[in-house]
Specification:
The protein has about 140 residues and is mostly helical. The chain has helices at about 1-15, 20-30, 35-55, 60-80, 85-100, 105.
Amino acid sequence: MSAVAAGGSALAGAVATDAWQSARTGVTGLFGRAGQRRADLAEVWTDQTAAEIAAAPAEQQVEVRQRLARVWQQRLADLVEEHPELGEEVRVWAADLRQRLPASESKWVNTFIATDNATQYNAPGGSITVTNHPGERPAS
Protein backbone atom coordinates (compact mmCIF):
# COMPACT_ATOMS: atom_id res chain seq x y z
CA MET A 1 0.00 0.00 0.00
CA SER A 2 1.55 3.28 -1.08
CA ALA A 3 -0.02 5.20 1.82
CA VAL A 4 1.91 3.04 4.28
CA ALA A 5 5.19 3.74 2.47
CA ALA A 6 4.45 7.44 2.18
CA GLY A 7 3.31 7.67 5.80
CA GLY A 8 6.37 5.94 7.23
CA SER A 9 8.73 8.09 5.18
CA ALA A 10 6.88 11.30 5.95
CA LEU A 11 6.77 10.57 9.68
CA ALA A 12 10.54 10.06 9.82
CA GLY A 13 10.97 13.21 7.72
CA ALA A 14 8.79 15.27 10.05
CA VAL A 15 11.03 14.84 13.10
CA ALA A 16 12.51 18.19 14.19
CA THR A 17 10.28 20.17 11.81
CA ASP A 18 7.19 22.29 12.38
CA ALA A 19 5.16 19.30 11.14
CA TRP A 20 6.33 16.97 13.93
CA GLN A 21 3.58 17.58 16.50
CA SER A 22 0.91 17.16 13.85
CA ALA A 23 2.62 13.99 12.59
CA ARG A 24 2.91 12.58 16.12
CA THR A 25 -0.68 13.42 17.01
CA GLY A 26 -1.95 11.97 13.73
CA VAL A 27 -0.13 8.66 13.91
CA THR A 28 -1.01 8.24 17.58
CA GLY A 29 -4.65 8.82 16.68
CA LEU A 30 -4.48 6.24 13.91
CA PHE A 31 -3.07 3.62 16.25
CA GLY A 32 -5.58 4.69 18.89
CA ARG A 33 -8.39 3.62 16.58
CA ALA A 34 -7.12 0.08 17.23
CA GLY A 35 -7.28 0.59 21.01
CA GLN A 36 -5.69 2.55 23.83
CA ARG A 37 -2.78 0.13 24.16
CA ARG A 38 -1.85 0.78 20.52
CA ALA A 39 -2.13 4.55 21.04
CA ASP A 40 0.16 4.31 24.06
CA LEU A 41 2.67 2.27 22.05
CA ALA A 42 2.56 4.80 19.21
CA GLU A 43 3.37 7.60 21.66
CA VAL A 44 6.38 5.67 22.95
CA TRP A 45 7.48 4.80 19.42
CA THR A 46 7.21 8.39 18.19
CA ASP A 47 9.23 9.65 21.16
CA GLN A 48 11.88 6.98 20.51
CA THR A 49 11.96 7.89 16.82
CA ALA A 50 12.49 11.58 17.54
CA ALA A 51 15.15 10.85 20.17
CA GLU A 52 17.06 8.47 17.92
CA ILE A 53 17.11 10.90 15.01
CA ALA A 54 18.14 13.78 17.27
CA ALA A 55 20.96 11.72 18.79
CA ALA A 56 22.39 10.61 15.44
CA PRO A 57 25.52 12.40 14.21
CA ALA A 58 24.78 14.74 11.30
CA GLU A 59 26.52 12.46 8.80
CA GLN A 60 24.26 9.57 9.81
CA GLN A 61 20.93 11.43 9.97
CA VAL A 62 19.74 10.35 6.51
CA GLU A 63 20.56 6.69 7.18
CA VAL A 64 18.80 6.79 10.54
CA ARG A 65 15.72 8.46 9.03
CA GLN A 66 15.61 5.88 6.22
CA ARG A 67 15.86 2.99 8.67
CA LEU A 68 13.17 4.45 10.91
CA ALA A 69 10.96 5.17 7.90
CA ARG A 70 11.07 1.45 7.08
CA VAL A 71 10.22 0.61 10.70
CA TRP A 72 7.20 2.93 10.57
CA GLN A 73 6.16 1.57 7.19
CA GLN A 74 6.04 -1.90 8.73
CA ARG A 75 4.13 -0.67 11.77
CA LEU A 76 1.57 1.07 9.57
CA ALA A 77 1.33 -1.99 7.29
CA ASP A 78 0.66 -4.18 10.32
CA LEU A 79 -1.99 -1.75 11.55
CA VAL A 80 -3.79 -1.71 8.20
CA GLU A 81 -3.51 -5.48 7.85
CA GLU A 82 -5.15 -5.94 11.24
CA HIS A 83 -7.67 -3.13 10.66
CA PRO A 84 -8.28 -2.73 6.91
CA GLU A 85 -10.95 -0.12 7.60
CA LEU A 86 -8.11 2.25 8.59
CA GLY A 87 -6.49 2.13 5.15
CA GLU A 88 -8.21 5.26 3.88
CA GLU A 89 -7.46 7.16 7.10
CA VAL A 90 -3.78 6.24 6.77
CA ARG A 91 -3.82 7.46 3.16
CA VAL A 92 -5.38 10.81 4.11
CA TRP A 93 -3.02 11.29 7.08
CA ALA A 94 0.05 10.45 4.96
CA ALA A 95 -0.99 12.81 2.15
CA ASP A 96 -1.64 15.63 4.61
CA LEU A 97 1.66 15.07 6.39
CA ARG A 98 3.63 15.05 3.15
CA GLN A 99 2.09 18.41 2.28
CA ARG A 100 3.22 19.83 5.64
CA LEU A 101 6.85 18.75 5.27
CA PRO A 102 9.40 21.42 4.43
CA ALA A 103 11.04 20.86 1.04
CA SER A 104 14.36 20.07 2.74
CA GLU A 105 12.79 17.05 4.48
CA SER A 106 10.68 15.74 1.64
CA LYS A 107 13.54 15.34 -0.83
CA TRP A 108 14.51 11.90 0.47
CA VAL A 109 10.99 10.54 0.97
CA ASN A 110 10.48 7.48 -1.21
CA THR A 111 7.17 6.18 -2.46
CA PHE A 112 6.99 2.90 -4.35
CA ILE A 113 3.80 1.67 -5.96
CA ALA A 114 3.25 -1.79 -7.42
CA THR A 115 -0.07 -2.62 -9.05
CA ASP A 116 -1.76 -5.36 -11.04
CA ASN A 117 -0.25 -8.26 -9.05
CA ALA A 118 3.26 -6.92 -9.61
CA THR A 119 6.12 -7.93 -7.35
CA GLN A 120 8.37 -5.07 -6.35
CA TYR A 121 11.69 -5.07 -4.55
CA ASN A 122 13.09 -1.80 -3.15
CA ALA A 123 16.22 -1.03 -1.18
CA PRO A 124 16.58 2.72 -0.81
CA GLY A 125 20.03 3.47 0.49
CA GLY A 126 20.84 -0.23 0.73
CA SER A 127 21.18 -3.36 -1.31
CA ILE A 128 18.99 -6.31 -2.10
CA THR A 129 19.44 -9.72 -3.65
CA VAL A 130 16.45 -11.23 -5.38
CA THR A 131 16.17 -14.72 -6.79
CA ASN A 132 13.07 -14.88 -8.92
CA HIS A 133 11.65 -18.10 -10.28
CA PRO A 134 9.22 -17.30 -13.10
CA GLY A 135 5.79 -18.71 -12.53
CA GLU A 136 6.20 -18.99 -8.77
CA ARG A 137 4.45 -16.51 -6.51
CA PRO A 138 5.54 -15.88 -2.95
CA ALA A 139 3.12 -17.08 -0.29
CA SER A 140 0.92 -14.33 1.09
